Amino acid sequence: MTFHRSWLSSLLLAAGLLPATSCRSNDRGPALQPDEIRVGCDRPAGRIKAELGGVSQGGNADGYLKPPVLAALHDLPVKMVRLEAVTCNNTYTLYDPATGRYDWRKLDQEIEAIQKSGATVMLNIFGMPQWLSKDPEQKLGAWWWAPPRDEQRWARYVGDMVRHVNHDKHYNIKYWEFWNEPSGGYFFTHWKLGKELFWRLYEVTARAVKEADPTALVGGFGDNVHYPEHYRDWFEYCRPRQIPIDFLTVHWYGEWPEADSWKKPELYQRYAVALNALHASYYPREVPIFYTEWNLPAESDSAFSAIQQAAFMGSAFYWLQESPAAGAMFFRVEKYRALGALLDEQFRPRAPWRIMKLFTQLPAQRVQVQGVGNGITVLAAREPGRLAVMVSRYDPAPGAPAVKKTLTLHGHGFTGSCRLSIRRETAASAASPGPWPPAAPTVLTVAAGQPISVPLPLEPYAVAWVEIEGNNAN
Fold it and tell me: Which domain covers residue 464, as residue numbers?
């Protein structure tokens, strides 16, 4: 498989974090011009990882039970949905200990709504019901973040859920994620008493999932990827005990505290590469990595403009595509506190919704690009009769000027009449809610074998979309 090697990939290669394999063939054609972004439309570069276009709802959100949310997501082909905190949803009760009866109706309804939309479901086992909590009086913190008072009863509770979902209802949920940010100070209240308590809870949970459905995959644990030592300790606990870890999940927000991390969407690649290497030092078999929460703002969007978030998001999609990550779930769908979500408080699409839609509209076959760097990232892909290019500029340098680039499309295969559509997310558009209006394509007459040139002005924070459609392209 071939792909475009970024400058960061080269640094990682030099550091021994990437395999030393050739990933770009010799350039063809005239020399690349300083203001040129060149797309080799006939030069395959792997596949676009569609599962990067996923969403994380957040605990107790129940978004797929809400008609306004479903309506807003109808035109957004989300590929994967993280259904969080299913073991302790505060808006409905799964199990009544007084009667010993389960009520699965709400959970079933949400799973069915997600699957009907075409998305894959990842179920998140997170949160302790009060009747099973080891700390029901909240002496250490919230009872719903405590371990169980009875491990066997917890295992039965988890196993009953897996059996209901995959055997009784045949939803065939593949991914069962364990917990959420346990080191974050309160999401696992007993973390401060020793991480072994948390590893033990994972062990009990993982074995319960596998006993109920041996084909299910279990993993976790949705922690801050900036702290790989937590994953190292988890591997060291699980490996000698042969506790299954089928996939890894991590979280990263641009404003989380690494020096100037909000300036570095490339961290999504860097952290995934490092975690992949850490896992490989313990296990011979590679497992998928998922960012089950990601965004620029973690708690507020007041520190960043709407176009900053949109441009960060567009650039992050590039770095996620370049990374070992198999999928990613943007946090979150609905407005939450002041977080920059896909939808505003009136359930109208925001700029992140529009950027997410651009990514999900990329064809599957990625093609090669030259001329990226200096804050500019490009994802280009094609299918018979259609070529799409997503260009993002994220340049946080003080006083960075607007730049003029020319997108040149070589080996496109179009001849005669074709349609060119261009969309741009700018500071003016990003602040406005709603989807883009229908595109008004420009009709081009293309000569066989001649490159197509498209001028692209790019502000320091901007996302541009170029799409060409015709009837006779390969």
Answer: 7-48+365-469
